[in-house]
Amino acid sequence: MHFSCEMPPKEKVQNQMTNWAHILTHQIVGGFSQEPEITAIHSFGSVNTSSFDQYSDLDLTLVSSDLRRTSKNIKTHLNKILEVSCCFVLYEHDDEAAYSFFFDGLTVFQKLDLGIVSSNQPELFQGSKCLYTAAEPQLCKNSHIIKFNQPQREHEVLDVFIGASRFIKYTRRNQPWGAYKFFNSFRELFLKKAFRLPQKETLGLEAFKKIDAEGKQFLDLIYASSQKDISQVYKKYLIVYRRRFIGAVSPSAERLMSQILELFGKKP
Fold first, then answer.
1. How buried is residue 148: exposed, middle or buried, by Cβ count under 10 Å (0-12/13-18/19+)?
2. DSSP output for 111-162
3. Would you call 92 helix, strand, or coil by DSSP?
4. Under 8 Å CB-to-CB from 25, ≥6 apart: which residues?
5. Which terminus of the chain has a lower count of CB atoms within 10 Å, N or C?
6. Which residues contact 27 (CB under 8 A, 6 or more apart)?
7. pLDDT reported for residue 210
8. Confidence class for position 7, pLDDT limits 50, 70, 90
9. For residue 1, which of 38, 27, 25 has the smallest C-alpha distance?
């Protein structure tokens, strides 16, 4: 099934889900509740509050008594509802996992963050709202997630580009400090890679000396300050960064990166 919809103006979003989120939630609950191992489905995050707007995503948690079966079939079930265009692994452990799913027909902002947790004492996010509970919930009998095992290089570049989409989201919300944090994180990452500096260490005096001595070509990245300059420079160096991964990521990841780049400078 496919659908496409426009987000309503923010003033119309008052303590309720917008149309796309309501439809997608209804279809996910209707579909996954038919699976015998799904004991509960919860929503959390801004979708449960009055802060939900045209840049919000949808956050759901599946509580499962058979993690192996749920994780194995999750993409298949979602594709029956709406075609998945790209998937990003947020984290994967033996007993829990979470993914960001992007869909054909929806915007980059209209993504689904979907978690899977065990029915044995599930840990839920604060403010979670129960959307479905099985009549006879079962304890988890198969506690091992089947991992997607997203290639490391694809995960790395998607993490950077999804961060860029959050920069755009906060910019459009007129939340400059939130936007700047994502730009600054990318700037540090880019400079560390460009100068082969340790990724896990904070940039210190010796690193700054090296960058000052050898980084004249990156002056626009280093000194960008105004919102317009930051947006232009961010896009410029995202394109440079992306070149490192040509041929190393899936076509779906390439399409998502292109969609995010197109958002820079585009009027909301």
1. middle
2. -EEEEEEESSS----TT-EEEEE-SS----SB---------HHHHHHHHHHH
3. strand
4. 17, 43, 47, 58, 60, 131
5. N
6. 1, 81, 82
7. 82
8. very low
9. 27
Binning pLDDT at 50, 70 and 90, where does residue 204 land? Answer: confident
For 259, half-sphere exposure in the C-beta direction (CA atoms, 13 angstrom radius) is 20
Instruction: Give every CB contact of residue 267 below 8 A, 6+ residues apart in sequence.
Output: none
Q: Report which of 86, 80, 101 is spatially closest to residue 27, judged by C-alpha positions.
A: 80
Distances (CA, A) of 232 to 74, 173, 239: 38, 18, 11
Q: How far is CA 259 from CA 98, 107, 175, 253, in A?
A: 23, 9, 22, 10
Return the structure tokens found at 172: 């459009």
